[in-house]
C-alpha cells in the first residue's frame, strides 16, 4: 500500500497534512531483509496508477526483486491513513482504502505457485487473508502441504479494521497451523483466541515447527519442536529473550521488522537466542525511526550486540540514530 503519515500528532480529523510513504507487512519484511543483505522478492498486485509506480520504484530501491508484481488496469493501488499513536492505544486511528484494490484481486489464478516455489522462505501474513475471499484462497493454496515447499512463515498480523465477518479467529488459526513458523503478538492472540499464554497458544497451534510469541516491549519467546514430523513428539524447546530498552519514535512497523530480523537469523542458521535478539534489534531500528521502514543495523554490528552476555544485553538502551552513528563501536549504544 501507499501510506499517508500524519504531519503532527492528534486525531485524523485534526491532522492538516500527510506525508506519502510506503507500507504493507510483506513488503516491509522484504525491504528490511534486502537492506540486511538477503535476496528478497515481493509478489503482489498494484494499480496502473501513480501510487503503483511509487510503490514499485521505492520497494525496488531497497534491492527487492519486483519482477513478479503485476499491474492491474482495472483496480487502484491500496492506500491508508493513520495517526502516529501506537496501535495498542485507544488514540490510534487507521483508515484503509483497500476494498476493490489491485492487491485484493490476488488469487490462486493470478499468483501461480511457481512464482514462489524457488524461495527458501515464503513469508505470508494474516493481512492478505483479510482482503478478499480470493486472497484467502491464495493463502490456503500457498500453505498447502506439498513436496519441496519452502519454509512457510506466517505472521498472524490481525487487523480488526479489515475483518467484518467474524471469521478472523477461525481463518487465522487454520492458516497459522498450516505454516512452519508462526509469529504472533500477545495482544492479538488475546483478542483472537482469548489467551496469550504460550502453552495454550501452542495447544491451539500444534502444527508449526516453531511458534514465536512477542510480548511488546517486554520479551519474545520461541517454542520449537524437538522432534521431526515423523518422530515421537518431545517437549518443545523454549527460548526467552527480553527486549532491550528503546526510546520509541514510532511503533508502526516494529512487528514487521522483528519478523525480518528473526527470518534473517533463520536464513543464516543462527540459534534460537540469536534469532530472537536479531528480531529485537531490527524492531528497535523501526521503533527509533519515523515511518514503517527503517535502515537496519549493519550485520557485523548486530552480530556483536546479539552476542552480548545476559547482563550487557539487559543494559542496552537504544535511541534515535543508533543504527547510523559514525562508527561501528559498540560504545555508541548506550548501556545503563
Summary?
With 336 residues, the protein is α/β, with parallel strands linked by helices. Helices cover 32% and strands 19% of the residues. The N and C termini lie far apart (39 Å).
Explained architecture:
The strands form four sheets. Strands 7-8-9-10-11-12 form a six-stranded mixed sheet, with helices on both faces. Helix 1 (25-35) crosses helix 8, helix 8 runs antiparallel to helix 9 and helix 9 crosses helix 10. The protein has helices spanning 25-35, 50-61, 126-131, 133-142, 168-177, 186-193, 198-204, 254-267, 272-287, 299-306, 310-315, and strands at 2-6, 18-22, 45-47, 70-72, 79-82, 94-97, 121-125, 151-155, 181-185, 210-215, 219-224, 237-242, 245-246, 316-318, 334-335. It contains eleven helices and 15 strands. The protein is α/β, with parallel strands linked by helices. The model is unreliable at 326-332 (pLDDT under 50).
Order of helices and strands: EEHEHEEEEHHEHEHHEEEEHHHHEE
SS class: alpha/beta
State the strand order across the main sheet. 7-8-9-10-11-12
- Mean pLDDT score: 92
First CA to last CA: what distance? Answer: 39 Å
Name the descriptors.
336 residues; four-stranded mixed beta sheet; 11 helices
Blueprint of the fold:
Layout: E1 2-6, E2 18-22, H1 25-35, E3 45-47, H2 50-61, E4 70-72, E5 79-82, E6 94-97, E7 121-125, H3 126-131, H4 133-142, E8 151-155, H5 168-177, E9 181-185, H6 186-193, H7 198-204, E10 210-215, E11 219-224, E12 237-242, E13 245-246, H8 254-267, H9 272-287, H10 299-306, H11 310-315, E14 316-318, E15 334-335
Parallel strand pairs: 1-5, 3-4, 7-8, 8-9, 9-10, 13-14
Antiparallel strand pairs: 1-2, 5-6, 10-11, 11-12, 14-15
Helix pairs in contact: 1-8, 8-9, 9-10
Amino acid at each position: 500500500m501507499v501510506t499517508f503519515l500524519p504531519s503532527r500528532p492528534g486525531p485524523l480529523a485534526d491532522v492538516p497534512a500527510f506525508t506519502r510513504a510506503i507500507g504493507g507487512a510483506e513488503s516491509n519484511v522484504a525491504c528490511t531483509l534486502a537492506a540486511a543483505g538477503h535476496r528478497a522478492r515481493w509478489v503482489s498486485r498494484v494499480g496502473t496508477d501513480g501510487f503503483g509506480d511509487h510503490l514499485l520504484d521505492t520497494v525496488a530501491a531497497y534491492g527487492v526483486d519486483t519482477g513478479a508484481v503485476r499491474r492491474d488496469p482495472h483496480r487502484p493501488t491500496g492506500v491508508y491513513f493513520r495517526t502516529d499513536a501506537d496501535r495498542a492505544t485507544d488514540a490510534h486511528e487507521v483508515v484503509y482504502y483497500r476494498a476493490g484494490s489491485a492487491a485484493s484481486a490476488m488469487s490462486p489464478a493470478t499468483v501461480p505457485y511457481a512464482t514462489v516455489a524457488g524461495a527458501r522462505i515464503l513469508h505470508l501474513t494474516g493481512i492478505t487473508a483479510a482482503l478478499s475471499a480470493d486472497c484467502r484462497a491464495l493463502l490456503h493454496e500457498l500453505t498447502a502441504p506439498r513436496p519441496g515447499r519452502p519454509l512457510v512463515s506466517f505472521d498472524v498480523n490481525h487487523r480488526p479494521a479489515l475483518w467484518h465477518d467474524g471469521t478472523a479467529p477461525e481463518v487465522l488459526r487454520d492458516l497459522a497451523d498450516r505454516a512452519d513458523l508462526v509469529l504472533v503478538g500477545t495482544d492479538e492472540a488475546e483478542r483472537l483466541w482469548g489467551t496469550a499464554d504460550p502453552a495454550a497458544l501452542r495447544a491451539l497451534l500444534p502444527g508449526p515447527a516453531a511458534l514465536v510469541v512477542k510480548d511488546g516491549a517486554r520479551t519474545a519467546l520461541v517454542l520449537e519442536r524437538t522432534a521431526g514430523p515423523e518422530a515421537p513428539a518431545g517437549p518443545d524447546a523454549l527460548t526467552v529473550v527480553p527486549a532491550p530498552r528503546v526510546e520509541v519514535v514510532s511503533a508502526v512497523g516494529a512487528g514487521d521488522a522483528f519478523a525480518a530480523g528473526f527470518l534473517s537469523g533463520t536464513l543464516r542458521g543462527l540459534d534460537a537466542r540469536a534469532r530472537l535478539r536479531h528480531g529485537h534489534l531490527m524492531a528497535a531500528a523501526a521503533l527509533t525511526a519515523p515511518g514503517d521502514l527503517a535502515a537496519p543495523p549493519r550485520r557485523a554490528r548486530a552480530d556483536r550486540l546479539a552476542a552480548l552476555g545476559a547482563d550487557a544485553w539487559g543494559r542496552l538502551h537504544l535511541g534515535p540514530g543508533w543504527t547510523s552513528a559514525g562508527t561501528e563501536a559498540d560504545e555508541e549504544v548506550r548501556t545503563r
